[in-house]
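Example A, followed by Example B.
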Amino acid sequence: MRPLASRMAVMTGEGALSVYARAKELEREGRSIIHLELGEPDFHPSASVNDALKRALDEGKDRYCAVAGVLALREAIAAYLHGTRKLNVSPENIVIAPGCKIALFMAMMALIDPGDEVLYPDPGFPGYPSITVGMGGVGVPFELSERNNFQPDIEEIAAKITPRTKILITNSPGNPTGTVYTDGVQRRLAELAVKHDLLVLSDEIYARVIYGGEYISLMNYPGMEERTLIIDGFSKSFAMTGWRLGYAVAPPRIVPALEMLAVNSYTCVAEFSQYAAIEALQDRDGTTPRMVREFSKRRELFIRDLNRVPGFRCSSPEGAFYAWVNISETGMSAQELCRIMLEEAGVAAIPGAAFGAAGNDFIRFSFASSTVNLQEAVERILLVSAVWQKTEIAR
């Protein structure tokens, strides 16, 4: 038999999904599992969004539509980005995709040639290095370290730029750390991008999920409009994970390439869901701010409770809905701790190495779950924590 394409041997999956699969197996066996592994809000779109979807179907909006997306939605996104991020974006620079991942995948496919180097955060979303090597590129991680409050180290990034460096990936607020890049860091990242003529993929899927302050997109900085691609979508800010709606905002010269890739893959995104997305963006009911306020309350309680667990150390994230817990003082590996928590306590979480080598001593918990579940999860973890306390004593 002929072998598969070589790219399949170097691309990787997601730790969250493998943990989720095992957790579901345990549930089928009758076990009680608290799911804190997936980054999925436990909210749903407002009734007005669902009504807009039904109305669109009733009006026959179930046909092929423009490859880049329904113009009314692209206009709504442009207005939304202006209102929430002070960006002046043309609807012509927006391409709708069936999910944020596809938007990211298409952007990287359009930009990466074999041998091109891509700078990406570590720890970070697993798709960044996986897609990079799948396209024949070379992934170059830059560390988000606890000693630097998980902010990018500009000197490290600058030292890793070579003549082959083509793309810088940023993610603020970040998965898994919850870090919101400071204005000073972003300004210096922009200066590096301009100086070295880098393209920037700014993953802004969590831009609305921040706990204080005003979000600033990397595209706002001098010289960045012509070199930045924003990747965003509806999953996190609007609790529309299963709708699979994302988009890319790209410089005019790159948009035709994204459209060409769309033509050769998914043709267009479902028309009726795009009309519902317009209603979501308008957010007449204040659903997004209300959801973020609830996440903020959970964050405060959950971080406090996690820090009660022996050997756990966790600072409060500035955005997203993840607790990034340092477990080095437990004396056990994150992989083993996650196994114990899942198999013995029924709490599903992700070993930090799933997000890169810099995450070896960490575990990611999602607090996009009810307060009751979060409190119960910590109580269960405390019950099994004697396992690693014994290990620490033995050491």
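Example B, a separate protein, is given below in the same form.
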Amino acid sequence: MLAALWGASFLFMRISTVEFGPVATAAVRVAIASAFLLPLLLYKGLGRQMLTHWKRLFFLGLLNSGIPFACIAFALLSLSTGLSSLLNATVPLFGAVVAWLWLHDKPTGARSLGLLIGFAGVAMLAWDKASFKPDATGLAPGWAVLACLLACACYALAASYTRRYLQDLPSVVVATGSQLGAALSLALPALWFWPAQTPSQGAWLSVLALGVMCSGVAYVLFFRLIARAGPARALSVSYLVPVFAVLYGLIFLGEVVTPWMLVCAVIILTGTALSTGLFRPGPLPPPP
């Protein structure tokens, strides 16, 4: 369910960011998510817990929503939803690197090999998009690729940060507090970059779906997964997100999936599976 919701976020961001712009899209998204989640938080009587941890929740919101939402919305101005979602699948790779550097969780030989394979697949996928010269859209695709990778690094940092400092809080507290923090951090930039022309009804409906379903509902599920299964397993949702994103792009936007994208996707997901320990090469265990 979480993968289906986040896969749809690429579709809705692609529609809304054309009219709202990247920063305003991200700001309206988290503002709507906050308005959706806050009554639920107050109904459960958890407002005091959120106020007690507001500093960490504010920082988490900036790291897990504010920066990455704006980066991905910017990338979707020149990249397809399928390509953006495949780059987004590298979140577990960044998560393994963050755990290594921050939590001193040194990867084994197989996991180190997975990191090399995964990032090699990213390089292959992004090679023809590495130009920093403006294309037909007026934007340089190289900056879009870097924006996607920055978003992935932020997601990875946020997952370990949540596990270390906020895992004992109810998921609705973490989800609401982080979305409020992101909304506050993006308020002034959104006013500065607010579109001169009023967005259409379709753009508003897209950003409404982003806020309610792809942020409000999705982050309650995500933080509950982190608390119950740990950040590494929670981040494994990235394996399925591209499947839904590519499917939505094919059906609703008529996007094309090339054989080269599929080859690179297999390489990236293989490396990600190795780096997170999902797949451990070796002899099969004896039958019972």
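On Example B: The chain is about 75% helix and 0% strand.
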